[in-house]
Design a protein that fits this description.
- By secondary structure, the protein is α/β, with parallel strands linked by helices.
- The protein contains 27 helices and 15 strands.
- Strands 3-4-2-5-6-1-7-8 form an eight-stranded mixed β-sheet, with helices on both faces. A seven-stranded parallel β-sheet has the order 11-12-10-13-14-9-15, sandwiched between helices.
- Helix 4 runs parallel beside helix 5, helix 12 packs antiparallel against helix 21 and helix 19 packs across helix 20.
- It starts with 5 loop residues before the first helix and ends in a 21-residue tail after the last helix.
- 50% of the residues are buried.
- Bound molecules: adenosine-5'-triphosphate (ATP).
- Adenosine-5'-triphosphate (ATP) binds next to helix 5.
- It holds the Pfam family CTE_SPB4.
């Protein structure tokens, strides 16, 4: 089903009730002519004051689906709302990026309604300037939970006693990230403020430190007194509403309307409206029977998305990634799956900050090796014609663990060829980049907020250029045709980057939901897109079956042999295995010659192996470290040391390492060589099991969660302040046992 169904084509925003001048504005200035299905379905229930449980596929326009009717409701009020009436709408988001994005959309939508003031609290700014904005007053506030609670408790001038709407965008993610207690605290504070206002309607209740010793903020959702929240319209929104939301939704939503375009039905638990805010409408009807509670239908991707899996053994992952990226950006014929475009913007998902940093640094420096010209006796470059390429079938085994027999028929000339480039760096200074005219970016939670914003802007300037960004690029002389961004899952939720037509899930997703959200960064608003998932052979069937069972879609298998053959043809070689070996060798040599890059690579390798097990139950049967060969994983990070040695060796090229590299080239060509000293697989597993969660790993994990930790620190600080106030008043209290931090990847099992 497309974003706009046939029936939807007849519906414009005008028919939904937008005033004509406003429709003119959003259609002409913002390009929103027809509502998407989710916007169509949610419009009247929100106008009617109903609580909403909204689930719709990624990129289907959920932001507008809740913002437009809310803003319309507020804008129509007479006399006009003023900012000194306090905050009427709070939108909670799990990440700063999403916060920023929603705030930007709200700002644009509100241009004709200048009396409605939007604002944002996400922790990227100084508290004092945030306080100043709150003091002036804002009608609509987009915030991350930690920073919002901070201001609720400490900014006296923050007025929210007349709150009318709370929206939880990406609600399941917010809970997953361990914000449950913070949200509970926020709701408790809001309830108190609303109750107080109800008792004394003329009082202008600001916020501030009003906690008493008896204000024990409960960590349990079940202990929120939600009666006052009945006055507030609550909206839970996500592309994936999981079971961890059931209890939460049950507590904060009253008689919600479920909106799920996938099922194309609206449902409600009861016919009657129980909310006191039903003041707006009595004509609220339940248009359809209840949505069946089918946990397998919880995840949805756009039908315009092509899902692919690329099977690849660990030791060839790096080469395969480079080849795939080159194939996409050069519009080489790597199957019918990829758009032939002048400019490609590709997001590559990795699982750790260290990996994102490493890959960006490597790809930025990597040059195209000189195939066929470096051999001792020289080797004539072969012609760049398709007829020279070996048959696909012969190289399909390129991606199997053992080289194909076809690949093993090297002659003496081939043997000499392995002396190619020794260090792989000779004469490379003048070589073109492996991925020409491509800007590389990284986005992860360990970057400062400023860095993250400028990265997103720089990437967007290529993926979706505006006149302004084009001028800026030309001024600065940095004109890239393509963009590749290495991201952790910090970017997988809600980020709306138009023009991204390819997603590569290079390192495994942490859960099924993560898979969906990552893939959903393309095919937005009805556009076409492709998502490629890298899997090992032993993972492929399990992953495909899981996606099918969960009705996420069918994952087609990518013809990796064809991809490699094409690269070989491009560089004038016949043997894709040889080409792969040379590329791998170039990466390894570059890493060996560059100390900081090697450190990055080692860090990325360690965090990859450690993190491999932190997979949610929905995917733990697919990705298990039992079969992970750490030696091969090291190869995929361009490391030649055995896993045991990684981190111990000094950066720089040693002759021993260099000869090992040549041996590896020979091994890949299936030449009889002295056995390379690689750990036995059992030994590898011992290495991996060495990486049991340590303090160091916990630290890294916190880094991965970036801003969340920062917010947790803030919470802790507030708790301590509260404790000391309490103790100074009532004396020391028996310490309460601390609840363990909920792992970010812990999600409910529904398969
Ligand atoms: N009615 C519309 N007409 C045209 N474009 C639209 C319309 N509604 C939304 N869009 C565009 O579609 C894109 C996706 O919208 P949005 O970010 O709200 O999707 P989403 O459902 O929240 O996705 P996700 O679940 O990934 O966060 C945005 O670029 C938005 O501008």
């Amino acid at each position: 089903m497309s974003l706009f169904s046939d029936k939807q084509d007849e519906t414009t925003f005008l028919k939904l009730g937008l005033p004509e001048f406003y429709y003119d504005y959003i259609s002409k200035k913002l390009g929103y002519v027809k509502p998407s299905i989710v916007q169509h379905l949610s419009f009247s229930p929100i106008l009617a004051g109903r609580d909403i449980l909204m689930k719709s596929e990624t990129g289907s326009g959920k932001t507008l689906a809740f913002l437009l009717p809310i803003l319309l409701k507020l804008s129509l009020r007479q006399p006009h709302i003023t900012r000194d009436q306090g905050t009427k709408v709070i939108i909670l988001t799990p990440t700063r990026e999403l916060c920023n994005q929603i705030y930007t959309v709200a700002q644009r939508l509100l241009i004709p309604f200048h009396w409605i003031v939007p604002s944002m609290l996400s922790g990227g700014e100084k508290r004092t300037s945030e306080k100043a904005r709150l003091r002036k007053g804002c009608t609509l506030l987009v915030a991350t939970p930690g920073r919002l609670l901070d201001h609720i408790l400490s900014t006296k001038s923050f007025v929210f006693s007349d709150l009318e709407f709370i929206v939880f965008d990406e609600a399941d993610r917010t809970l997953d990230l361990g914000f449950e207690k913070t949200i509970t605290d926020i709701l408790v504070q809001i309830s108190k403020k609303v109750v107080r206002k109800m008792k004394n309607p003329t009082e202008q209740t600001g916020s501030g430190l009003e906690l008493s010793a008896h204000d024990d903020i409960s960590p349990e959702v079940s202990r929120i007194d939600t009666t006052p929240l009945d006055r507030i319209q609550v909206l839970l929104v996500s592309a994936t509403l999981k079971e961890n939301l059931t209890e939460f939704a049950g507590k904060v939503l009253t008689d919600p309307v479920r909106i799920n375009p996938a099922i194309l039905s609206l449902s409600s638990s009861k016919k009657s409206s129980g909310k006191s805010d039903k003041r707006q409408s009595s004509s609220d009807e339940d248009p359809a029977p209840s949505e069946p509670v089918n946990p397998l239908a919880l995840l949805k991707l756009p039908s315009t998305l092509t899902q692919l899996s690329l099977t690849c053994p660990s030791k060839l992952r790096l080469v395969a990634l480079l080849t795939l990226l080159r194939g996409i950006i050069l519009n080489r014929p790597i199957g019918p799956y990829f758009a032939q475009k002048e400019s490609h913007s590709i997001i590559v998902f990795v699982s750790t900050c260290a990996s994102a940093e490493f890959h960006m640094a490597l790809f930025e420096q990597l040059k195209m090796p000189e195939f066929g010209r470096k051999g001792k006796h020289g080797r004539k470059p072969r012609s760049d014609t398709a007829s020279d390429a070996p048959k696909a079938s012969s190289s399909l085994s390129f991606f199997s663990s053992t080289p194909s027999s076809g690949a093993a028929t090297g002659d003496e000339e081939d043997t000499e060829q392995y002396t190619y480039g020794r260090t792989g760096l000779e004469g490379q200074a003048h070589n073109p980049p492996f991925l020409p005219s491509t800007g590389f970016f990284r986005l992860h939670g360990d970057m400062s907020q400023l860095d993250r914003v400028s990265t997103i802007n720089a990437f967007a300037a290529i993926s979706n250029p505006t006149k302004k960004s084009k001028e800026k690029e030309e001024r600065e002389g940095k004109k890239f045709q393509h963009a590749v961004m290495f991201c952790t899952d910090v970017a997988s939720r809600g980020i709306d980057l138009r023009g991204v037509s390819e997603i590569i899930q290079y390192e495994r997703p942490g859960s099924l939901e993560e898979y969906v959200h990552r893939a959903g960064r393309t095919s937005r608003a009805g556009e076409k897109g492709t998502s490629v998932l890298f899997v090992r052979e032993e993972e492929r069937d399990g992953m495909e079956r899981t996606l099918e069972i969960a009705k996420i879609g069918k994952c087609q298998r990518m013809d990796s042999g064809r991809m490699m053959n094409d690269l070989a043809t491009q560089v004038g070689e016949q043997d894709p295995v040889f080409v792969a070996a040379v590329i791998q060798h170039s990466c390894e040599s570059l890493i060996l010659s560059d100390g900081p890059l090697k450190n990055k690579s080692e860090g990325a390798f360690r965090s990859f192996v450690r993190g491999y097990t932190t997979v949610a139950k929905t995917l733990s049967h697919v990705f298990n470290r039992g079969s992970l060969h750490s030696g091969h994983v090291a190869t995929s990070f361009g490391l030649k040391d055995s896993p045991r040695e990684i981190g111990k060796s000094r950066p720089g090229i040693s002759s021993q390492q260099d000869s090992e590299s040549i041996r590896m080239l020979q091994k890949m060509k299936n030449k009889p060589v002295q056995k390379q000293k690689r750990p036995h697989s059992d030994q590898s597993e011992m290495e991996i099991s060495h990486f049991t969660p340590s303090t160091e790993w916990k630290k890294e994990k916190r880094v991965m969660l970036g801003q969340i930790q920062e917010q947790k620190d803030e919470e802790e600080k507030m708790r301590m302040e509260k404790k000391s106030r309490r103790e100074s008043k009532y004396g020391p209290r028996k310490p309460v046992e601390k609840r363990p931090l909920k792992p970010a990847t812990q999600v409910s099992e529904f398969l």
